[in-house]
Amino acid sequence: GAGVSQSPSNKVTEKGKDVELRCDPISGHTALYWYRQSLGQGLEFLIYFQGNSAPDKSGLPSDRFSAERTGGSVSTLTIQRTQQEDSAVYLCASSSWDWRKNTGELFFGEGSRLTVL
Amino acid sequence: GNSVTQMEGPVTLSEEAFLTINCTYTATGYPSLFWYVQYPGEGLQLLLKATKADDKGSNKGFEATYRKETTSFHLEKGSVQVSDSAVYFCALSSFGVGKLIFGQGTTLQVKP
After folding, report:
1. Confidence band (pLDDT; 50, 70, 90) for A35?
2. What is the distance between the alpha carbons of residues A108 and B88, in angstroms, rounded to a whole number?
3. What percent of chain B has a predicted confidence (pLDDT) above 90?
4. Which residue, A30, A66, B72, B89, has most beta carbons within 10 Å?
């Protein structure tokens, strides 16, 4: 597709279960980002990928969170042993960042809404 | 560390009113600055940007000027419309960091 695609769009799970969230970026975009948007909060940075490597994973809240990217394309964010405080909208974005000018545009998906009961 | 602070919302205006949403930042070096907008039921999209001091970004009647001396990037529009109702996010990217740091977002409601 033309835009960033995320799945599932909605996920309801029970506390303690594992979940996987998928992001399919815009073709050709080398940078991929994961953010979290909680009710009443701003956008919290989680991790970003340049190609298949993650130079910055400083925003991952705990070791229950992990992410990978394969083939420089699709990325999966995995949350193990989910807790109620993990409930949020998880946003993925991709870009073709111009590192020399420090500018570009992040294109966001519509997000995956996670509800942990 | 780098951070962005926005005025708290919601901001409620009547149609054709003047809009200002304040944004200030803390950053090392010379960041690039952005405003993103999230319309109801849609993903975030870039509204405007500025990459150096005194630059003015503009789009769809919105403007913001990069003020290094006051570390600000306030969003303005002369005459808002109902269709401008959305959540607005200010963001920065420090050189070489490769990620955007967002503010908390400001909800704008425009009434007819």
Report:
1. very high
2. 14
3. 79
4. B89
Q: What letter does residue B53 receive in the DSSP assignment?
A: T
Residues in chain B with pLDDT values less than 50: none
How many cross-chain Cβ pairs, A to B, lie less than 8 Å apart?
A: 62
Question: Residue B97: what pLDDT?
Answer: 64
Classify residue A110 as exposed, middle or buried by CB count within 10 Å of its CB (0-12, 13-18, 19+).
middle
The more confidently predicted of residues A41 and A63 is: A63
Q: How far is CA A74 from the centre of its chain?
A: 11
* Contact by Cβ (8 Å): A42, B103: yes
B32 — contact with chain A (CB < 8 Å)?
yes
Across the interface, of B31, B45, B102, the residue whose CB is closest to A43 is: B102
DSSP sequence for A24-89: E--TT--EEEEEEE-TT--EEEEEEEETTEEEE-TT--STTEEEEE-TTS-EEEEE-S--GGG-EE
Q: How far is CA A14 from the centre of its chain?
A: 20
- Interchain CB distance below 8 Å, B32 and A103: yes
Cis geometry, peptide bond prior to residue B10 (ω within 30 degrees of 0): yes
